Structure formats: structure tokens, C-alpha cells
What does this fold into?
Amino acid sequence: MTESSNFSSMLAWLLDHRGVGVPELADRAGVTADEIRGVLARETPSEGLLRRLATALGLHAADLLILAGWEVPDDLAPLDAAATPWVAYIVMDAVHLPAAGRSELLQSIRALPQEKRRSPFVPKEPEPLADGPCGALIRMFWYRNLSRSGLAHAMAVVTPTYLSAATYTVIGDGRSELTARLVTDFAALLGLEARELAGLTGVLLPEVPGPPAPEAVDAAAVLWELRRLSAPQAEHVAELAKSMRGDSPVEYRINAPSW
It folds into this structure.
């Protein structure tokens, strides 16, 4: 199928899953019902329409653009690819903090001033990604400033999935199929609902998973907010997160949250 037909199927599934009709979605998005029907009939949506749909559906516009096969424009991309080396470590340290500490860290990130973009965002990953769900999911993490190794480390600490960086390359280029466990854990770190991500990627969940642990929810929020930071700001936050852990003898626990 083409990207437009893939996205048409995804949107149709999501509307059915949520019990939302075309007129209601059109009203939420501020577009005409005919525009929505056109997408459902496999017309290629414009970037502007996708942005409106993302807001109406409560999704990140960058994620919806990726699912639709679009390139992510700079205004929706992370500020600074040079911040990548610190992102995973901040997330992993956040998971080891108590709830109050995670909240304080998140507020500290949000309080940092927004710096200007100095160059276009280019993910620091050389491998090509496959069309379809596998490539789209890995691209979503690229646009959260996670490298392959960063993704491997963050997933191992935040979720029960413990895979090598090389395995994520195999997943991204389509040589490995998505599993229910992997999609559930990807959803936790992406801050998405597992049943919806499974439906959007065509993966059958044998049972409805429980909600992610509070630590995982906060980790996803921290990961998203880190996108707006420059490399020096990310380094500052990494030092802050490490200091907030104090003299903990444990560096990082695998699957730290209590799922």
C-alpha cells in the first residue's frame, strides 16, 4: 500500500477505536468534513491538515507526520542534535528519582529559556529506515533525540524490554517484526496509549496491557520536553538529574519501574 492508503487505514481505525465520527473530528480540527472524508478515501493529507488532526486527536504533530510518511519540519523537530548524548542519561536518572523529584526535574526543564535554532535538525543516525510501522517507530525516537544506544539504554531502564542498539537497527530497517511486548514498551516511552499504538502499527495485543508505571509516564514526559533544549542546556540538566540522585550506590537498575 502507499503511504496515503496506510494513513487512511490508520485514521479510520483510530476513529473507530475512539468512537469519534467524521463531523466531530472535523469540528475539533477546524476543517471540513469533506477534508476528513478525503483522507479516509486515501487522498494524501497536507501538512497543515495533519497538524490540525494531531491537535484534535491529542497527538504530537511530529508523530502524526511520521506515521503519515511526511518529513518532520524544523519547527516540530528537536532543537539541537548535539544534545543527543545526554538525553538517555537524563531519562534514566529521572526514573530513579521519587515522584516529587521527577516532578521537580520536569519543571526545571520546562523553566529553561527557549534558545534559537542554529541549524536544521539532522538525526545522528546513518542507517536508512524502512517504510511502514517499524521505521516509523524508530523515527519517532530519532525525533525525541534518542540515538540507537540511547534508545537501548532508556528502554532497558524504563521498560521490561532489554535489547542491544544493533537490534533497534534491525527493527528500524524492517528486518525484525514488531511484537506485542515491544509495541507496549515503545508506547510507554513514547507517551502513547499501548492499544492505540498497536492498532496503528497493525500489531495484535493478546490482552489489554495495564497502564504504565508512574515512573514510565514521567520518563516519557521528560523525554518529550528535552527536545526543546540546546546541547549546553541538556548537559546542565544531566548534571542536575545526577545530583538529585545524591549518593545512590546504584547506577541504573534494569526495568526500574514496578510494572
Q: What stands out?
A: The chain has a mean pLDDT of 94. Residues 3-18 form the longest helix (16 residues). Residues 134 and 172 are 5 Å apart (CA to CA). The chain has two domains: 3-72, 81-244.
